[in-house]
Amino acid sequence: MADDPNYMTPPGYERMRRELLWLDQVERPRVTAEVSYAASLGDRSENAEYIYGKKRLREIDSRRRYLVKRLEKARVVDPATMSGPTVRFGATVVLEDERGERTWRIYGEDEVNVDQGILSWKSPIAKAIMGRQEGDVARFEAPGGTREVEIVEVRYEPAPELPEVLDFSR
To answer: In this structure, what CATH number is given to the domain that contains residue 84?
Structure first.
């Protein structure tokens, strides 16, 4: 929903902030210079560098608008300051199902990385286990049908730190 808060961890917020700075201070000025040079070469209608550069500027501006909106709505929650037996945003949970055990961190929508075990608090699994405790069983709809998981463990721990240097180029 458009009015939902944008919950995120401190590293998630910092990553988005750094990407916005990179777009403003590095990427957009670089692409603008390339477009200016390409425009100086003459006929723009058949100038691939100019056409691609303008397209890239539109992509940058679109991403920038997205980041600004998400950061404006951000509600930063530090899992390291939380505790308790109940699954909430920021929890690290161990779930067990017919496939075995899997550990998940319940973080923000912009922090999702399934390979690293990070789910959105709005994902079907997270929605099913929110508010529950160790030993509880939850059901949710998955692409393959209804699944059932048992909450084996709930803990709160610091979110992984960001690397010193982030690569935002795609």
So the answer is: 3.10.50.30
